[in-house]
Amino acid sequence: MNKNVMALFAGLALPAGMVLSGYANATSSAKIINGVEADKDSWPYMTALIDKSKLNAFQGQFCGGTFLGGRYILTASHCVSDIVKSNTINVYASVGVHDLNNVDTEGQKAEIQNIYMHEDYYASSIEIHNDIAIIELAEEITASHVELSDDTLTNSLITGNTLTAAGWGQQSATENLFSSKLYQVDIPYTDRSTCQNVGGVYATVGDDAICAGYAEGGKDVCHGDSGGPLFYNDNGTFKQVGIVSWGTTCADENAYSVYSDVAYFSDWIAAKTSGVSYKQRINSDATTQNVQIALPVTNYGTEAFDVKSVFAIPAVSIVSHTCNDTLGEGESCQVTINVDRKAAGFLTSETDTEIPVSLRTNHTLASELKMTLHFNNAYVADVSSSDDTTSSDDSASSDDSTSASGSAQSSGSTATSGSSSSGGSGGASFGLVFLAMLGCFFRRRYL
């Protein structure tokens, strides 16, 4: 069956022949070549990511993933990077589906609320690292969840151990041939040094990734399978050891597929699935110098925690917050900040500029919630703005730490906000922590 892959894959800058999948702006994604159709109920946690704008689920499926339980799905960052950049989630997840033509009757369709890419995800023309992401669903669902490998198991793998990949991807290296049904393929584990010794882009494979495949080729993953799982049968229990990431070509000689090492990211996965919900990226279309932005936080987990402070450059000030009280399960709060783009050093003509902001908490797993504030447009300087940095909030920010209410802090970099929340007794004091160096903000150029 043919599939309109051109609608899914377009132009990320990669070396010739390098295969990287994803939504909208990737060259291609991974496929199952020379595998077999999976038994209908063999992978109940297998998840299809589907573009709502396409004619149907078969045409819309662009990446895979695995259900971790509760409201979380594990996938690859390159699958969702363009969705995150757009700040518009026009995608849904189908958990437990086998035949994409039966998505309305098989498995569970779930709306997506947030996406957490690895903060150090990097994809260039010669290397890819930290290719992992967590999808947060709008509601918890009840379904079988995947078991993840740990360091002990993954580090015990030796070359030749049988691994299994699954997905809905392309089934021919030379033809546009897809199946609506889930397929799987057995391929051997390949030690990292053998993979690196192939040379070229394979020399960049790091500790965050593992390789698998036949040296002579023949069986592989490729277009459509990215973000999906690589399993190892651990005494009768299939555990996920990898996430389909990239390769050069599909099923060719000395063209191993590279997978993100799930065990390597165990702490990161634990933090992102702890129940602490926030917006990792916020886009603004504002054309003003001063922009007020809301930073909401929700606790879906059982561990209560305090939002302690905002960590940002001096161009950021706190307008108000409702985070006085400890957040119990199901509770939310919000910090509203003001960003003075002139004080941040941005020229009025600059577009696509970014500032990093973090919320600090006392949660045992999610102690820092890193966010990116992205400004799409240029801005018009405030008439009242002088050559010095001036915000629309209560005071100007100097190179030293200054509170949102305008009082300088002695020797430390912590300040209390100028406006507190709607009451409540309990909880921790809330403050603003400035980055000491303006160089900590950045202007990203997208691939």
From TrEMBL:
Secretion signal span: 1-26
InterPro entries recorded: Peptidase_S1_PA, Peptidase_S1_PA_chymotrypsin, Peptidase_S1A, Serine_Proteases_S1, Trypsin_dom, TRYPSIN_HIS, TRYPSIN_SER
Biological process (GO), any one: proteolysis
EC number of the protein: 3.4.21.-
Ranges for domain Peptidase S1: 32-274
Key words, A-Z: Disulfide bond, Hydrolase, Protease, Serine protease, Signal
Domain of life: Bacteria
Enzyme kind, highest EC tier: hydrolase
Any one GO molecular-function label of the UniProt entry: serine-type endopeptidase activity
Pfam families the UniProt entry points to: Trypsin
Region of interest (Disordered), residue spans: 386-425
Protein name: Trypsin-like protease
Lineage, broadest ranks: Bacteria, Pseudomonadati, Pseudomonadota, Gammaproteobacteria, Vibrionales
